[in-house]
């Protein structure tokens, strides 16, 4: 299984809602990543987890809260988002945090009303 | 931090080789060059990476200049399915294992 899955595919939420994005991989990878991609822009790194510990936080606002409950799962909890947070949220994984290739999921398209 | 520069768009005839250039003039000696592509509405897909030697796999070839200041991704026989945005990435600040995507090249393969 060389797939990274993300749910849901699409999410619409109001600014007062709390929602979560989920990412899963069963490749035994120990590094997992969240990226944000605005329309017609490249992906921007948000968070990196290595061995279930947060390794990099790219100064992301606290309304985004990542969680890595085990080596296969990565969540992104969303609370009090703004319309400008509407974007494609991509999850990726790699064997480790070093030079290996990253495998990306298809993304969750988030719209904040 | 090493940054990359790519042309914003290119066209290529189907069946011909697509040569996508990337400039990374500030690359450090132990930083790798990675190439990814993103087909519309999908997540990015790894293509190839290299340090200083030319590399080839089933998808593409990567040619890195001797001074490592630039590289070229070659798709030997482009098909319509190769239409995508191609990103050249240099791993930033060895030790932080962080990847920064540049603006990429939008490749359109024409029938």
Key structural traits:
heterodimer; A: 113 residues; mainly beta; seven-stranded mixed sheet; four-stranded antiparallel sheet; 0% helix; B: 111 residues; 10 strands
Question: In percent terms, what proportion of residues of chain B is strand?
Answer: over 45%
Shape of chain B: globular
Report the total helices of chain A: 0
Separation of termini of chain B? 39 Å
Strand runs of chain B, count: 10
Oligomeric nature of the chains: heterodimer
Q: How would you spell out the order of helices and strands of chain A?
A: EEEEEEEEEEE
Can you describe this structure?
The complex is a heterodimer of chains A (113) and B (111). Chain A is mostly beta strands and 113 residues long. Helix content of chain A is 0%, strand content 57%. Chain A is built from no helices and eleven strands. Chain A has strands spanning 4-7, 10-13, 18-25, 31-37, 44-50, 53-57, 64-70, 73-79, 87-94, 103-104, 108-112. In chain A, strands 2, 4, 5, 6, 9, 10 and 11 form a seven-stranded mixed β-sheet that branches. In chain A, a hairpin with a 6-residue loop joins β4 and β5. The mean pLDDT of chain A is 93. In chain B, strands 1, 3, 4, 8, 9 and 10 form a six-stranded mixed β-sheet that branches. Chain B has a four-stranded antiparallel β-sheet with strand order 2-7-6-5, with no helix packed on it. In chain B, 33% of the residues are buried. In chain B, a hairpin with a 4-residue loop joins β5 (55-56) and β6 (61-64). Chain B contains no helices and ten strands. By secondary structure, chain B is mainly β. Chain B is globular, with a radius of gyration of 13 Å. The model of chain B has no long low-confidence stretch (mean pLDDT 91). Chain A binds chain B through residues 4, 41-45, 48, 55-56, 90, 92, 97-99, 101-107, and chain B through 32, 34, 36, 41-46, 49, 87, 91, 96-104.
